[in-house]
Specification:
The complex is a heterodimer of chains A (528) and B (324). Chain A is of the alpha+beta class and 528 residues long. Helices cover 32% and strands 20% of the residues of chain A. The longest helix of chain B is centred in the middle third of the chain and has 39 residues, at 180-218. Classes of the chains: A alpha+beta (528), B mainly alpha (324).
C-alpha cells in the first residue's frame, strides 16, 4: 500500500509540474532575436545615417510613406502613416491624407503637425534626408490629418524616393516631445525613443542589446511577435552556430552562409532558404578618364571577356542571376530587352584589343589595369573572378582592396580604373540620372552624354508612364552602346529561416506589409 | 624611504604629459593621412555632395591639418575629449562604458594565466629534462602558437553548439537577471569561454618563462646550501627559488598589463564581448576621430601606469633594484 501512495504522490506531483510548464508556456511571450553585426550608435535616425540603427528605429517609428522588398512586385511606395495621396496635374503639389487612428506610444494622436515639424527640421538642418526633401518649397497642413508638400520642381519620382529615404533617415517624430530641442541629436529621446510604430522601446543595454515590445495600440493591429530583441553578434560564424543549435530563429543577409553551403541547407527540412532580389545590381564601373578605358573598343573587349555563367558558378555556387541588360529583373516592363551587353566571346575580345592598338607584348600582356571593389563579400568574390577572366585575354589585371571609407573616398576622387559597384534602378527609374548624367552623384565613370542628360531630365517630369518607359528604354540603349559600366548580376539577398516561423520582410508573403526593409511587423511565430 | 617613493611615482606620472602630447600628434597625423573621413559614414547611401560638405564643415574637417591639431590639443588640455562623430555622445563616457567589460575579460585571464602558468612552470622545473618537463614544455609552446580566434570558435562549437552547456555570445543573457547575485552568475557563465580562449594562449608563455627561470635558479649554489641546512623542498621552491625567478615573469606581466585594454579585439569579436578593443576597431573603420584619439590617449596612459606598477613591483621583489 505505501508504494501505491508513493506512486500516486509522484504522479500527481509530475502532473502538476507539467501543467505548470504548459501554463507558463502558454503565457510566455514570443520573442524574436534579431542578430546585428554591431550596436546602433543612436536611436534617433534622422540626424545622421546610422546603418546599425535602421532596424530598431524602423520598428519603433513610423514613416509618411514606406517601401520594402515589395519592389520586386512592382510596388514603388505605400502609405505608412499616409492612408492615401494624390499629385496635382502640374506635378508640383502632393497631398497626403493621414490615418486618423495612429497614436504615439505615449497615447497622444499622430497629426499632420508632427509630419510638418519633422520635415521642416530636416530641411532647416540639412539632415541626410535633405537629399530628397530639398525639392520641397513648403509643407502645409490644412487640417489635422492632411499634409501638403509643395515642390519647387515637378518630380515624378518624388514619392518613391521619399519612401526609400524615409526608411533610413526621415521617420516621423512627435512634435510635442521634440519641439524644445535644437535638432534631432539632443535630448532624452535620442536614446529612449517614442514613436508610433508597431513596437515600443523598452530598454537599450549598451554593449549590444535593444529590446522592444509589441505596441498593443498600433493602428494596424498589434504585431504577432510580443518581444523584439536586437542583439549584437559580431562574428558571422558564431551567429551560424547559434542558428544551427536553434537559439536564433533566422539569419538575414548580413550573416548569409557561403552559397556553397546552401545546397546542404536546402535539404534540411527544419530550415528555409529564401532568395530575394533587390533593385540593385552588381556591376563594374569603368573610369573613362583613364587610358586605355577611354577607347570604346577596349571597353567592348572587356565586356566580351566576361563570362557571367562562370562567375556565377565560382562566386555564388550558381545561385545568383546574371544580368545582361542595363537594368534588373524587379524593374519589369521598364527593361529594354533588346539592349544587351556584349556576349562572352574571348576571341572577339582579343581581336578588338589588337585593333585598338594594344597587342600582346613580349610577356603576353597588353596593358596593366587595377580592379577594386567595395567592402562586401559578393563584390570581392566577383572581382577575384573578373581579374582572372581579364588576364585570359592578355589584360594584366590586379586586384586592389581597401577598407570601406578608403574605397569610398577613392571612388569620389575618381581614383580607380575598374571598380565593382551597386547601381540602383528603383524605386523610380530616375535613378539613372544619379549614375549616368553628367555630374551625377554616382557617376564615378565621368560619363558625359548631352543627349542622355536632356532625355533623362525630361523623363523626370513626364507624368505619362508610357512616355517615360520609352525614354528609359532609349537611355538603356545608349548605356549599352557606350559602355561606361557593365552590368553583371541582379543583386540577391539570402535569408535562412527556421521552419515554423514566417512573414519575414524578405519573403513574398510580407511584401508591402513588413513596413520597410527592416520591419518585423509581419513576422508570424510558430503556433500563431 | 616614503618621500623617495612618492617623488618617484610623481615624476613618472608627470612624464605622462609629454608622452600623451607625442601620442596625440603622431596619431592625429596618421589618421589624417588615411583617406576617407566620417562624412561618408554619416551620409550613408545617399552621398549628397551638399550634405558631405556640411558635415565636413561642421566637424572642422575642411580646415588645414595644423589648425585641426591645435584645436584638438587645446580641447584635450581643457580636459574635454569631445563627442563621438557617430553618436554625439561624449567620448569619455563611450569609452568608460566599455572599459569594465574589457578589464573583466582580460584582467581575469591575465591573473589566471600568470598564477596557473607560473605554478605549472615551477612544478616541472623541479626535474628539468625529465619526460614530464619536455612533454609539458612542448604543450606550452603549442598552446602559445594557437590563434586565439580559432580557439574561440572551436570552444564555441564544442561547448555552445555540441554540448550546449555554455553561452556563445555577449556578456549577459537576453532574459537574464538585471542585478544581484543572479547577474553576477550570468556574467560569470558568459565569461568562461572567452577567458578560457584568451588564457590558454598566454598560459603557455608563463609556463615556459617560469620553468626556465626556476630551473636556472635551482642550479645556484645558495639553493644547495639551503637544501643542506634541511629546509623542505616546498619551502625551497616557494620561498627561495620562486621569489628570485619572478623577475622575468613580472617583466612579461608588466608588458601584458599595458595591453590590457586593447589586447582582446579578436576574442571580443568572436564572442560579441562589448569591449573597448571592438569599439576602437569600429571607430577606425568609420573614421570617428574623437573616439579613436580618446582611446589612444587612454591606452598610452594605461601603458605608462602599467610600466610604473612593474617598476614598483621590481623594487618589492628584488632588493637589489633601487628606485631613482
Amino acid at each position: 500500500m505505501p508504494w501505491l501512495i508513493a506512486r500516486l504522490v509522484r504522479t500527481g506531483f509530475l502532473t502538476l509540474c507539467l501543467l505548470g510548464a504548459v501554463g507558463s508556456m502558454a503565457q510566455q511571450p514570443t520573442t524574436l532575436v534579431v542578430p546585428q553585426l554591431g550596436e546602433p550608435k543612436t536611436l534617433s535616425p534622422n540626424f545622421a545615417s546610422d546603418s546599425l540603427g535602421f532596424a530598431p528605429t524602423s520598428n519603433i517609428y513610423s514613416h509618411l510613406v514606406a517601401i520594402d522588398w515589395g519592389v520586386n512586385k512592382g510596388t514603388g511606395a505605400y502609405g505608412d502613416l499616409a492612408e492615401s495621396w494624390s499629385t496635382s496635374p502640374d506635378g508640383k503639389v502632393v497631398t497626403f491624407k493621414l490615418h486618423k487612428a495612429a497614436k504615439w506610444h505615449d497615447g497622444k494622436p499622430v497629426t499632420a503637425a508632427d509630419v510638418k515639424f519633422t520635415y521642416d527640421t530636416i530641411i532647416a538642418k540639412k539632415y541626410p534626408a535633405f537629399v530628397v526633401l530639398k525639392n520641397v518649397r513648403e509643407v502645409t497642413t490644412p487640417d489635422d490629418h492632411t499634409v501638403v508638400l509643395n515642390l519647387i520642381d515637378p518630380e515624378i519620382g518624388f514619392v518613391p524616393m521619399l519612401a526609400q529615404v524615409s526608411t533610413w533617415t526621415a521617420k516621423i517624430y512627435p512634435k510635442h516631445l521634440w519641439s524644445d530641442q535644437d535638432g534631432f541629436d539632443k535630448g532624452p529621446y535620442v536614446i529612449a525613443p517614442v514613436g508610433s510604430g508597431p513596437f515600443r522601446f523598452v530598454r537599450w543595454e549598451k554593449g549590444g542589446l535593444v529590446e522592444l515590445e509589441s505596441n498593443k495600440a498600433y493602428f494596424r493591429g498589434p504585431a504577432k511577435v510580443d518581444r523584439l530583441v536586437f542583439r549584437q553578434v559580431t562574428d558571422v560564424n558564431v551567429a551560424r552556430a547559434e542558428f544551427d543549435s536553434g537559439r536564433l530563429q533566422f539569419l538575414n543577409y548580413e550573416y548569409a552562409p557561403p552559397l556553397a553551403e546552401i545546397v546542404a541547407l536546402r535539404q534540411d527540412p527544419k530550415v528555409r532558404v529564401v532568395f530575394t532580389p533587390s533593385h540593385f545590381s552588381r556591376d563594374i564601373q569603368l573610369n573613362l578618364t583613364r587610358k586605355p578605358l577611354d577607347k570604346l573598343e577596349v571597353r567592348q573587349a572587356i565586356a566580351h571577356a566576361i563570362d557571367r555563367e562562370a562567375m556565377n558558378r565560382l562566386a555564388f555556387g550558381g545561385f545568383w542571376k546574371p544580368a545582361t541588360h542595363a537594368s534588373v529583373e524587379s524593374q519589369g516592363d521598364l527593361i529594354n530587352r533588346a539592349a544587351t551587353f556584349p556576349a562572352f566571346d574571348r576571341a572577339k575580345a582579343e581581336a578588338l584589343l589588337d585593333t585598338a592598338g594594344l597587342p600582346r607584348g613580349p610577356g603576353g600582356w597588353r596593358f596593366d589595369i587595377s580592379v577594386t571593389n567595395p567592402n562586401c563579400p559578393d563584390c570581392k568574390a566577383m572581382m577575384q573572378v573578373l581579374v582572372q577572366q581579364l588576364r585570359q585575354v592578355g589584360i594584366n589585371a590586379k586586384l586592389e582592396q581597401f577598407d570601406q571609407a578608403t574605397w569610398f573616398r577613392r571612388q569620389a576622387e575618381k581614383n580607380f580604373d575598374i571598380s565593382c559597384y551597386f547601381t540602383r534602378y528603383g524605386p523610380d527609374p530616375d535613378a539613372y540620372r544619379e549614375h549616368f548624367m553628367t555630374g551625377g552623384g554616382r557617376n564615378n565613370m565621368s560619363y558625359s552624354n548631352a543627349e542622355f542628360d536632356q532625355l533623362a531630365t525630361r523623363a523626370a517630369t513626364l507624368p505619362d508612364k508610357a512616355q517615360r518607359r520609352a525614354i528609359y528604354q532609349q537611355l538603356q540603349g545608349m548605356i549599352v552602346r557606350d559602355l561606361p559600366y557593365i552590368n553583371l548580376f541582379n543583386e540577391q539577398k539570402t535569408t535562412i529561416i527556421r521552419a515554423g516561423w514566417s512573414g519575414f520582410n524578405t519573403e513574398p508573403e510580407a511584401f508591402d506589409k513588413a513596413i520597410t526593409w527592416f520591419g518585423y511587423y509581419s513576422v508570424v511565430p510558430p503556433g500563431k | 624611504m616614503h618621500v623617495g617613493l612618492l617623488r618617484f611615482v610623481l615624476l613618472r606620472l608627470l612624464q605622462l604629459v609629454p608622452v600623451t602630447i607625442i601620442v596625440i600628434v603622431i596619431n592625429f597625423l596618421l589618421l589624417h593621412l588615411a583617406p576617407g573621413d566620417i562624412s561618408t559614414t554619416l551620409a550613408g547611401d545617399n552621398a549628397d555632395p551638399a550634405y558631405l560638405a556640411m558635415i565636413r564643415e561642421s566637424y572642422g574637417l575642411d580646415r588645414p591639418f595644423h589648425e585641426q591639431l591645435w584645436r584638438y590639443l587645446v580641447q584635450i588640455g581643457s580636459g574635454d575629449m569631445g563627442v563621438s562623430f557617430r553618436s554625439r555622445e561624449p567620448v569619455f563616457d563611450e569609452i568608460m562604458l566599455r572599459v569594465p567589460a574589457t578589464l573583466l575579460l582580460v584582467g581575469t585571464s591575465l591573473v589566471l594565466s600568470v598564477v596557473v602558468g607560473t605554478s605549472i612552470g615551477t612544478w616541472i622545473a623541479r626535474r628539468p629534462g625529465s619526460t614530464l618537463d619536455s612533454g609539458i614544455s612542448a604543450l606550452a609552446v603549442g598552446l602559445f602558437s594557437i590563434p586565439v580566434f580559432w580557439l574561440g570558435l572551436m570552444l564555441v562549437l564544442l561547448f555552445a553548439v555540441r554540448l550546449q552547456i555554455l553561452p556563445a555570445m555577449g556578456m549577459t543573457s537576453v532574459d537574464g537577471p538585471r542585478e544581484g547575485i543572479g547577474r553576477v552568475m550570468d556574467v560569470a557563465t558568459h565569461m568562461v569561454l572567452p577567458v578560457l580562449a584568451l588564457m590558454t594562449v598566454s598560459l603557455g608563455q608563463y609556463v615556459r618563462l617560469a620553468r626556465s627561470a626556476v630551473a636556472e635558479v635551482m642550479g645556484e649554489s645558495y639553493i644547495t646550501t639551503v637544501r643542506a641546512i634541511g629546509f623542505s623542498e616546498r619551502t625551497i621552491m616557494m620561498h627561495y627559488a620562486l621569489r628570485n625567478a619572478l623577475l622575468p615573469v613580472v617583466t612579461v606581466l608588466g608588458l601584458q598589463l599595458g595591453l590590457v585594454l586593447t589586447g582582446a579585439v579578436l576574442t571580443e569579436t568572436v564572442f560579441s564581448w562589448p569591449g573597448l578593443g571592438r569599439l576602437i576597431y569600429d571607430a577606425i573603420l568609420a573614421r570617428d576621430t574623437p573616439v579613436i584619439m580618446g582611446s589612444f590617449i587612454i591606452m598610452s596612459a594605461t601603458v605608462a601606469i602599467a610600466s610604473l606598477v612593474t617598476d614598483l613591483l621590481y623594487a618589492v621583489i628584488d632588493p637589489r633594484v633601487g628606485l631613482k
